[in-house]
Design brief:
This protein is an alpha/beta fold. It has 2 domains: about 130 residues, NAD(P)-binding Rossmann-like Domain (Rossmann fold), CATH 3.40.50; about 80 residues, UDP-galactose 4-epimerase, domain 1 (Alpha-Beta Complex), CATH 3.90.25.10. Helix content is about 45%, strand content about 15%. It contains 11 helices and 9 strands. The strands form 2 sheets. It has a 7-stranded parallel beta sheet with strand order 3-2-1-4-5-6-8, with helices on both faces. It is globular and about 55 Å long. The N and C termini lie far apart (about 40 Å).
Length: about 290
């Protein structure tokens, strides 16, 4: 019987995937440090700092979904190395990695993830293990817009405030799109390597606002705010350190011409899967 292991199954990317796999009749198991946090779903206790716990989870796995948690880069690198070692020892049938927004498919972009980073080492190590693998490369998640400070202003003021330029093209996608692509990559192992997930062609902030406008049936204008101002907005909700990381990420965006997936390696081309439009996403989540 198939056995799929899902890292981060109590989080933004893993939870929709675990639900989708179970709803589709697959034997899907949450890999979590706290198995009590996955709401009664099938689970196995895993600590990324422990190779032994990872080996126990991956043994006889048909597929493993991996994305590294938000943490200090030095800690993420240790996690990546441990995961790679466990994969080398257990040889699961398939591994799918999410870059979680880090850019790995555009070497000319200032957003490109540097060699030696945790994501880069995870991808390199899994590739060298010889197992069948794919890397999904989303850019920005639509769920970022559910931040109450962002969505609240859209509904109350008709203003979508976000720290990107109004004309800046982004391949936005939903966590629901990620789940759909990962499920397909688990069941269709003919597609390997890099798979971009998101709107292609990319859409601008103004087009993003237009999607909200159509859904809410009211005027919505896009308003570009500086990364620093956005950090000050979210610091009371997420803390100063977390806000500083967000500010740094969006300051990097300010130096890029676009944050768009490569069309040739997109899910649209390789899997015939089209991500949700802004309108479709809003309707599905009943925002």
């Amino acid at each position: 019987m198939s056995r799929y292991i899902v890292h981060g199954a109590n989080g933004a990317q893993g939870a929709p995937l675990l639900k989708r796999l179970i709803d589709s009749g697959h034997n899907a198991i949450a890999a979590a440090r706290n198995t009590g946090s996955v709401n009664g779903m099938p689970s196995v206790k895993v600590d990324n700092a422990s190779v032994a716990s990872l080996i126990a989870a991956y043994k006889d796995a048909t597929g493993v979904f991996i994305h590294l948690p938000v943490a200090a880069e030095a800690e993420r690198l240790i996690h990546a190395q441990n995961i790679v070692e466990a994969i080398k020892q257990t040889k699961p049938g398939r591994v799918v990695i999410s870059t979680s927004g880090w850019v790995v498919d555009d070497p000319d972009s200032p957003l490109q993830n540097p060699p030696g980073s945790a994501i880069a080492e995870l991808i390199r190590g899994v590739q060298e293990s010889g197992v069948s693998f794919a890397v999904i490369a989303p850019r920005l998640f639509l769920e970022n817009l559910l931040n109450p400070l962002v969505l609240g202003a859209v509904k109350s003021e008709g203003v979508l405030r976000y720290p990107i330029r109004a004309e800046y093209p982004v391949s936005w996608c939903s966590h629901l799109d990620v789940a759909e692509v990962v499920e397909r990559l688990f069941t269709d192992t003919t597609v390997t390597g890099l798979v971009g997930v998101g709107q292609s062609p990319a859409i601008t902030g103004e087009q993003l606002a237009q999607g909200f406008e159509r859904y809410l049936k009211r005027t919505v204008a896009f308003s570009s705010v500086t990364p620093q101002a956005f950090g000050e907005m979210i610091a009371p909700l997420f803390g100063t350190d977390a806000a500083a990381g967000v500010v740094a990420a969006y300051e990097a965006q300010a130096n890029a011409a676009a944050n768009a997936i490569t069309a040739g390696t997109s899910a649209q081309v390789q899997l015939a899967l089209t991500p949700r439009t802004v309108d479709q996403w809003l309707a599905e989540i009943s925002a």
